[in-house]
Write a structure and sequence with these properties.
The protein is of the alpha+beta class. Helices cover 16% and strands 11% of the residues. It has one domain. Bound molecules: zinc ion (ZN) (2 copies).
Length: 141
């Protein structure tokens, strides 16, 4: 047993700094779009979550990694009953450096344009706010 690790009671304290909630709350988890370029095949496979019994990776014990496209961040689901995950900076399989989370910048930019009681502006509910893609992706032409 590792020193200082006794039972499961302290799990809420583990990784307190890097442990985050799936946000924005208005946007439920969804698999990454085809636009996402992953570091390696194993990461790609891990992100292609599909399970007959669970609608999202936070409910499924088999889910190893989640990707949040809005914040451009990767994490390991905590499976504590909520939609929380621990941010990771490198791929567990190929060790590639993963993108820096844009979570803090997202909050700064939303705060700058919307008040506390305002709904989150639409472009902040997709990757559009950081990619500059105003169409939201699909454009018929
Ligand atoms: Zn499952
Ligand atoms: Zn990788």
């Amino acid at each position: 047993m590792l020193p200082g690790v006794k039972g499961m009671g302290m799990s809420a304290d583990l990784f307190r700094e890097r442990r985050v909630l799936w946000m924005p709350l208005e946007v439920p988890w969804q698999p990454p779009t085809a636009a996402l370029r992953v570091c390696c095949e194993t990461m790609g496979a891990a992100l292609r979550f599909s399970c007959d019994q669970h609608a999202d990776p936070f409910e499924c014990a088999d889910a190893l990694i989640v990707y949040n496209e809005i914040f451009d961040e990767y994490g390991i689901p905590v499976h504590d009953g909520g939609a929380t995950y621990v941010l990771i900076a490198h791929c567990p399989w190929c060790a590639a450096k993963l993108p820096e989370s844009q979570r803090d910048r997202w909050f700064d930019e939303v705060d700058a344009v919307a008040g506390d009681d305002d709904p989150t502006p639409k472009r902040f509910l997709s990757a559009a706010w950081r990619t500059g893609d105003q169409t939201g992706g699909a454009q018929s032409e």
